[in-house]
Design a protein that fits this description.
The structure is a single chain. The chain is of the alpha/beta class and 264 residues long. It contains ten helices and seven strands. α4 links the parallel β4 and β5.
């Protein structure tokens, strides 16, 4: 009931698998400075972690599943790609069968896209092929802490959140419908030993919950009404800083960095 009351009228009837999703969500983002700030922080985090962990590697920087706030908005050298053709993209690219040369990529960035991949094994195999040794993948995904687990089960009718799902492949009805938002938890936390055994060339070198949870939630994201006016942004950021000691309990997103090993 509450989600229906808070839903934005201009996206309430949105077919999330249609190209119209980009158009309508872009219009929502344009009028939400608080949410734009969250995405910009994601962009800077991608670049910071890229420089920290992939610094010795040459190659392309590619965003897979680029949505309404592509990393290219902050860093024009990043190639924006998706499987759905749209005017804001440089090209279409299936992350599970990338049309890219072997060892041609320094970094792959993904914002809330990994959990939409119906066959994660194919994606990791492609990562091993296209990413040069020393390069890697940076994924920002829904988190799995208590607050995230509670909210994600209730926020989106088109996506589930099931940490107990057997295996890694969720039944999907389209590019967006039917995804399991708990997939990053399943692969990198619950089944970490399985991941490391299947893909020994890919090492998890960094993982952390992200701290802009209050602005993301209070902004309403791309689908819900904003709950606090933008004048409150400084106070909300101060609150985010104060709750950092309990961030693993409260966070809504986390970041995972995978590096293609040099020594294999």
């Amino acid at each position: 009931m509450l989600t229906r009351l808070l839903a934005l009228p201009d996206v309430a009837d949105l077919n999330v698998d249609s190209d119209d999703r980009i158009i309508r969500h872009s219009a929502v983002l344009a009028r939400k400075p608080m949410l734009r700030e969250v995405f910009t922080e994601f962009h800077h985090l991608f670049r910071t972690l890229d420089e920290r962990y992939f610094g010795k590697t040459d190659g392309l920087r590619v965003e897979i599943g680029a949505g309404v706030a592509p990393v290219r908005d902050s860093y024009p050298d990043v190639l924006a790609t998706d499987v759905v053709a749209a005017s804001h993209l440089d090209r279409t690219l299936d992350a599970q069968a990338m049309d890219l040369p072997d060892s041609s990529v320094r970094a792959l960035y993904g914002q809330n896209c990994f959990h939409h991949f119906p066959q994660p094994d194919r994606f990791f195999s492609e990562v091993e092929r296209v990413v040069a040794p020393g390069g890697g993948v940076i994924l920002i995904e829904p988190y799995h802490g208590p607050v995230a687990s509670l909210l994600y089960k209730r926020l989106f009718a088109s996506e589930g959140f099931d940490k107990t799902m057997p295996g890694w492949e969720a039944p999907s009805d389209g590019p967006m419908n039917g995804a399991n938002q708990a997939l990053s938890h399943i692969v990198f936390v619950r089944d970490r030993a399985t991941f490391e055994a299947r893909f020994p060339d890919l090492e998890i070198v960094h993982a952390e919950p992200l701290g802009n949870l209050m602005r993301y939630l209070l902004s309403g994201g791309l689908n819900f009404r904003q709950l606090v006016p933008d004048i409150g942004i400084p106070a909300i950021k101060a609150m985010e800083w104060l709750v950092r000691p309990i961030l693993p309990l409260l966070a809504l997103h986390h970041v995972i960095v995978l590096r293609h090993r040099w020594d294999r």
